[in-house]
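Running this now, will post back.
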Amino acid sequence: MRTIILSLFFCIGVFFSSLSAQDAAVKQLPPPQTGIGKPLMQALLLRQSTRSFASTPLPLQELSNLLWAADGINRVETGKRTSPSAMNWQEMDVYVILADGAFLYNAKKHELEKVAGSDLRGAAGSQAFVRDAPVNFVYVADYAKVTRGSDEDKTLYTAADAGFIAQNVYLYCASQTLGVVVRGSVDRTALARGLQLRPDQKIILAQTIGYIK
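Update: finished.
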């Protein structure tokens, strides 16, 4: 009987350990605060790039707001986003690189799915400030979703779609007095490996976000 009881406790422990591992693979985001922020014209007036960031982590609520502003779903009935997308491909994926790992933003569930447990900030850009800033967004075009057009068109449209997302982030940061800069200088080979990207996924741009130092 004692052996049976010990075996039962062992199985229960394994079960809850498995649940904890699953929970760690997903970072739940609180609902975005859509009623906050400065008026649009003031945000445009304040929009600027900065390259000096404090290392202080952003609260989860701020990260939630940022991601929804970037490319969240604003029309639940159709699944359409806060940023436009050529032919409604919705081919841009937002990867989030934090000190505790790298995550893929799932806009439908408004949550972060872990893709790497290591700190990849050093691969997210060549500038020194990138590796210490709390948040880096990486905009990745999934060409499996780009169903038509010439190669030139696909390159043009995916670049434009990444730019739309980056501008949404700029305006949110201006509204909330956060530092931000969009960047093209990325170690794409190392970062693609770290993010476990497929050959038909292409890193377009990165964007660093945090409190201004």
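The helical segments are 2-24, 40-46, 60-71, 151-176, 188-194. More later if anyone needs it.
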